[in-house]
Amino acid sequence: MAKIAVMGCGTVGAGVIRVFSMNRDEITRRVGEEIEVKYALDLREFPGTPIEKILTHDFQDILNDPEVSVVVETMGGLKPSYQFTKQLLEAGKSVCTSNKELVAEHGVELRKIAVEHNANYLFEASCGGGIPIIRTLNASLTGEKIEEVTGILNGTTNYILTNMTEEGKDFAEALKEAQQKGYAELHPEADIEGYDACRKIAILSSLAYGCHISYKDVATEGITNVDDTDIEYVKAMNCRIKLLGTSRREKNGTWALVAPMVIGSENLLTTVDGVMNAVLVKGNAVGTTMYYGSGAGSLPTASAVVGDVIECVKSIGTPLRLDYSSEQLQLMPVDEVERPFFVRYRGTEAEAVNTFGPIRHARHLEGHADEFAFITRKMSEKQFRDCVAADARVIKWFRRGKKEEQE
Ligand code: HSE
């Protein structure tokens, strides 16, 4: 029998314990032996729950128990999860995590320590909740030169935008619901300001391109700037606003960006609603592939962690190959990226054309007589920003999904 421990019994950790219990027979059959959760580490008490019987408040119980070969880290944040993970790996125990903050900040180092100690550091649940995207990049798309990764990578913001668009809910109400459903981070700024999606696109891009991309280099905007009127204009264009994380290898370099973008019915991501996430990966041989599933929530995220634990148990003593390089990739500025833009404008169409050149899809909304919205021609972000700076009639703008992102 393999013995494991779970550190952090919040939404995901409690889900991991539940999945091991509810799928015990299936898991035993697949692994060839039973997996027992021997410890659950948390500062809190859990009276009357299954966690109570295996609860410890002392990390040393796990670290010093030679029976425990794999540890789940679902504590979140950097402290004390970084130190705990490091100590466990140095002791030769494998660690499986959903902690994207820790993976984005110290993943390369922790992965190296794991390999040096014949252990694994796996993080399938760190990106896209239950979507098996990391294993896909590492095991299935290995014959590809990957050219682009674009995804809806945050369940909370997708839930908020969907509810604002389809139900007319306001931002605060939709966020509250996402929190109640266990989708949001402890500090929801990480979701709504785009930081969570930023870490995820940095992790996925590092795996896709085989070089380390620091999340600190990814240009990031959240959804706090999106209001009801923007959504009405975008709907009138038969489009949707989605928070996308995207990176692309182009002739003159690689860029990465997290931002709310206007995408249309030609883009598969437009129909990804609520807490669902999806990732498009474009390879030079396979073309565009897409992966879809629950981006947040207890059981879907736990499922990804449990998959990693099983992988670790099956490969004890032999670290799995992972293309997670420490070589740094310098991103090119998004200023040079060309795309069309969505603009809300307080002026005439002639004035807009004068500033931006040809415009398309002009839409006027009832009750907003003094403004209209349109889509510009394709231009570089620098060119576009120069136009905006020169014309005070621009109320607001968003990026329109690039043609390539719509294939
Ligand atoms: N807060 C995250 C989200 C949880 O909403 O996507 C899953 O990483």
Protein topology:
Elements: E1 2-7, H1 11-22, H2 24-31, E2 35-41, E3 55-56, H3 59-63, E4 68-73, H4 81-90, E5 94-97, H5 100-116, E6 121-122, H6 133-140, E7 146-152, H7 155-166, H8 171-180, H9 189-192, H10 195-209, E8 219-220, H11 228-236, E9 239-250, E10 253-264, E11 276-283, E12 287-294, H12 298-314, E13 338-339, E14 341-345, H13 349-356, E15 359-363, E16 372-376, E17 379-380, H14 381-390, E18 394-400
Parallel strand pairs: 1-2, 1-4, 2-3, 4-5, 5-6, 8-10, 10-18
Antiparallel strand pairs: 7-9, 7-11, 9-10, 11-12, 13-17, 14-16, 14-18, 15-16
Helix pairs in contact: 1-12, 4-5, 5-10, 7-8
Bound molecules: L-homoserine (HSE).
L-homoserine is lined by residues 129, 154-156, 183-185, 191, 196, 295-296.
Account of the protein in words:
This protein has 407 residues and is of the alpha/beta class. It has 14 helices and 18 strands. Helix 4 runs parallel beside helix 5 and helix 7 crosses helix 8. The mean pLDDT is 96. The site of L-homoserine (HSE) has 11 residues, from helix 7.
